[in-house]
Design brief:
single chain; about 100 residues; alpha+beta; four-stranded antiparallel β-sheet; elongated; DUF4359 domain-containing protein
Length: about 100
């Protein structure tokens, strides 16, 4: 009985993870919002607002593992890796070029 309950619990958690695995469109909206928060001027915010969706969509690669996704965005030499799980995004690491500012 104990093993069956544990298996059902594990199976339920895996189903929940799969259902709440965020899509690339959710990630693009999230990173665009973060970039707008980091913007210093109204011009930067306006450009990110207008061009951000396409820019981040093209600069992002995804590795979907079914229960979570790794998003990697490489923009002008600044690269960030983010874990997408439970409809949330957790930055894992960022690699900056010396000539560009970080996305975060």
């Amino acid at each position: 009985m104990f093993k069956i309950r544990n298996l059902v619990l594990i199976f339920g958690i895996l189903i929940l993870l799969a259902i709440t695995n965020p899509a690339k469109t959710e990630y693009v909206s999230w990173i665009k919002e973060k970039a707008m928060e980091k913007s210093n001027s109204m011009l930067q915010k306006g450009l990110v607002s207008l061009l951000g969706d396409k820019m981040f969509e093209n600069a992002t690669k995804t590795q979907n593992y079914g229960v979570f996704t790794i998003f990697e965005t490489d923009l002008e030499g600044s690269r960030v890796q983010v874990l997408g799980i439970f409809h949330n995004f957790i930055p894992l690491r960022k690699i900056e070029s010396k000539t560009t500012s970080a996305l975060f």
